[in-house]
């Protein structure tokens, strides 16, 4: 019997999801702020993935799609299993995140500065390193998250990262652990899935837990027609003028259904990166688009 393929969390060519938005089905990574802080606290997944609001683009998306070759309609596909990341088993990391959450809640820049490396902060963006090497780590982190925004959105984003218990090593930065961690999966099987379905990774997500209910309509009280396994699922958002609460997906059997929008996460989330030095933790970098300079 041939050994099972290794499940790894491959390095993605781009961690920022706008790059994937060239797909016919567009995931709108638009909502960076939650107005209800209590909801953010009780559901860190929702805010951490920036709600990953999955909707079809209205006019621009349609025009963009018309310039590409038409793909076959969604049909059955062979699911590719994932293994969700586990929380970090390090009490010192848990304590650090608690302090980070307190600083974010109070919008305490001085306290935050003590949690960031003074020098050597990196900021990976699509066009290269966005960090200003002449500035301190806290200045670069503030720029990446947009801490100066009047609406406090940058601090909300930081609080969401503080809530995230998973992190994984980063191949480009020795010693750095970046959060949230990606799921592990068979990269070759996923590439084959994209090829056979004529899709790109922007048209796929993964359930944030096993056994998520699939409804027959975009309503909580709609009949449950199935449950999602721990595997990639094809997303097929319907055009809408409002932020949707439910996301249309295509099951491996080729059937359309609806799941709560915060139950599906995209690959390539923005990440905050930490390093453990001398028994303590520091924020050492950020991976993602960040705020415009």
Account of the 3D structure:
The chain has 293 residues and is of the alpha+beta class. It contains 8 helices and 15 strands. The protein has helices at 37-42, 44-48, 59-66, 91-106, 109-113, 137-145, 153-163, 187-197; strands at residues 82-83, 122-125, 128-129, 168-170, 173-179, 184-185, 204-207, 212-215, 224-228, 233-235, 246-250, 256-260, 264-266, 271-277, 280-287. The strands form 4 sheets. The protein has a 6-stranded mixed beta sheet. Strands 12-11-10-7-13 form a 5-stranded antiparallel beta sheet, with no helix packed on it. Strands 1-6 form a two-stranded antiparallel sheet. α4 (91-106) packs antiparallel against α7 (153-163). The longest helix is centred in the middle third of the chain and has 16 residues, at 91-106. The model is unreliable at 12-69 (pLDDT under 50).
